[in-house]
Amino acid sequence: MKKMQIPDLSRKPLAAMVLAIAAAVLPPAAAQVAPTAQEVAGYSGLHAAAHQGDAARIGQLAPAKADLDARDGNGRTPLHVATFARRGAAIRALVKAGADLLLLDKDRYDCVTIAAVADDEETLRVLLSLGASAKLVTSRYDGTALIAAAHLGHDGVVRQLIAAGAPLDHVNNLHWTAVIESIVLGDGGPRHQQTLRQLIDAGANLQLADRQGNTPLQLARSRGFREMVALLEQAGAR
């Protein structure tokens, strides 16, 4: 296993130390496990049809009592597989047949979070229109799809999730909210700025601090993200 490289923190102020540690040791939200080529080659039945986007085959298998929520070796159901493969027609066919939209795979991701991390706005739109929830607690960090999308600056996804009632102020087990992740794990660029703006406009709590007591405004200042600082100050953050 490759040895983890931890930056020299001896001369950094506390806030910068925390951020440097996070950047060094946290895997990205995108560290989901999509089916490998080898796994796909081994698929049969609904998993194969889901990956191929074969809605007609799904329609044939479902009445024959095929297990709509069967799991592959990584706990992925056919719905998870169809989501990773961006197969909207297969998703619709599976849900129509009775597949469960709320199940988590082995890595604790649901379909909504899979689409959110992939910046796949169209598949997310399909899932939400079919009744998928934007409110589930997912991932090893006890987060949400909104937190994952904010981390990555997927502003269009963030817009959809907010409209779908995603919890704005959920705190994950790192003691970070979507607002905090848009700052500490973002690059301060236009998409992360837009993500933060949408969270502010939706009414996210701007005073929820991280485990060290740093508010979003303090974190944005420590990163030198001037545009984010301005957004937060205009919104009355302290």
Describe this structure in words.
The protein is mainly alpha-helical and 238 residues long. It has two domains: 34-107, Alpha Horseshoe (Serine Threonine Protein Phosphatase 5, Tetratricopeptide repeat), CATH 1.25.40; 110-238, Alpha Horseshoe (Serine Threonine Protein Phosphatase 5, Tetratricopeptide repeat). Helix content is 50%, strand content 0%. Helix 11 runs antiparallel to helix 12 (190-202).
The residue fraction in helices comes out at 40-55%
CATH superfamily placement of the largest domain: Ankyrin repeat-containing domain
Mean pLDDT: 90
Number of helices: 14
Q: How large, in whole angstroms, is the Cα Rg?
A: 20 Å
Let me know the largest β-sheet.
Answer: none
Strand proportion, as a percent range, falls in under 5%
Distance between the termini: 43 Å
* Low-confidence parts: 1-12
* Element-level helix/strand string: HHHHHHHHHHHHHH
Compute the number of structural domains. 2
The CATH architecture of the largest domain comes to Alpha Horseshoe
- Category from helices, strands and their pairing: mainly alpha
Q: Describe the global form.
A: elongated
CATH class descriptor name of the largest domain: Mainly Alpha
What is the number of E strands? 0
The CATH topology of the largest domain corresponds to Serine Threonine Protein Phosphatase 5, Tetratricopeptide repeat
